[in-house]
Task: inverse folding
């Protein structure tokens, strides 16, 4: 029998059908010839290997080719505990409930707060930091050494999240009287940087005048320019927005402005949040169920998004030409 003929013959054991000429009889019990058995095993092994490789490639495509990899950590640990190895995560928390991330005093982040009256409205705050850099693009990621953002508090109540060394505080957000402003530094995973069990923070005193009275410098008895009452600044355009149950009304759209025009953003949210105007670094606390107004001069051209921090909703886009 030639090799070509052998390649066309298949084994048919007892009970199997087939043409007589296609069968090869083994021993009396119907055991297939040794050559036929040997040929079966490599084919089975190859099929198993190909199946395993296909599953491996499919898993890689799900995470490495546009998919989002899953972050795993030890059972019983929180995301905060697994998000970074910098310092030591303490069981204590700050007044806002954020865990403290303890680091050695040498080389630890530092912050100081300076307050200056703004010539137009409210105050300009300067955050002087050391061993620290602001990283707004990685907020929500792992805790990295000397990186993150800040929270601004007025008399112990958070009014804004700060992503840079300067922040404008509108007069409308500060009631009449003496107040304490506090800035606290946080890592990207929202844990508070701490030294010796205490959060890294800076504070400054602020006295807000009564509505309708100037908070600037006095020049003898000469009359000073009276600023508008808080929330009543003159504006060329007014945009009224309502946020309820996670939905923005009216639907987010573009607000077109000419450079130099003033726009008032009047926002009412059913939950406490913070409004942020990208590109202008303007923020406004949104008390739950109360209307809040942010007025700014569109002195930069471009497209700027207005969004909320906590709910991450886009409220509108300012298109300045």
Result:
């Amino acid at each position: 029998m030639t090799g070509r003929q052998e390649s066309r013959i298949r084994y048919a054991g007892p009970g199997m059908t087939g043409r007589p000429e296609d069968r090869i009889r083994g021993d009396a019990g119907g055991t297939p010839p040794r050559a036929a058995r040997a040929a079966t095993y490599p084919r089975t092994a190859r099929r198993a290997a190909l199946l395993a490789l296909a599953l491996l490639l499919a898993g890689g495509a799900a995470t490495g080719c546009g998919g989002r990899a899953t972050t795993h950590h030890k059972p019983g640990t929180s995301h905060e505990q697994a998000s970074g190895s910098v310092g030591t995560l303490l069981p204590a928390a700050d007044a806002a409930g954020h865990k403290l991330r303890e680091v050695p005093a040498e080389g630890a982040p530092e912050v100081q707060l300076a307050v200056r009256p703004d010539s137009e409205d409210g105050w300009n705050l300067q955050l002087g930091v050391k061993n620290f850099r602001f990283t707004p693009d990685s907020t929500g990621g792992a805790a990295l050494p000397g990186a993150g953002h800040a929270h601004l508090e007025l008399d112990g109540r958070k009014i804004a999240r700060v992503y840079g060394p300067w922040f404008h505080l509108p007069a409308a957000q500060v009631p009449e009287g003496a107040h304490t402003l506090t800035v606290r530094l946080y890592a990207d995973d929202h844990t508070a940087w701490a030294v010796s069990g205490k959060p890294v923070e800076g504070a400054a005193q602020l006295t807000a005048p009564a509505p309708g009275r100037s908070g600037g410098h006095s020049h003898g008895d000469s009359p000073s320019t009276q600023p508008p009452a808080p929330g009543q600044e003159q504006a060329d355009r007014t945009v009224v927005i309502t946020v309820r149950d996670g939905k923005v009304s009216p639907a987010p759209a573009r607000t077109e402005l000419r450079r130099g025009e003033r726009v008032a953003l009047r926002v009412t949210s059913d939950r406490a949040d913070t409004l942020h105007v990208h590109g202008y670094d303007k923020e406004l606390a949104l008390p739950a169920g109360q209307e809040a107004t942010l007025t700014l001069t569109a002195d930069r051209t471009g497209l700027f998004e207005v969004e909320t921090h906590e709910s991450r909703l886009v409220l509108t886009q300012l298109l300045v030409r």
The longest helix spans residues 34-64. The longest strand covers residues 177-186. Confidence is low (pLDDT under 50) at residues 1-18, 20-29, 60-77, 214-232.
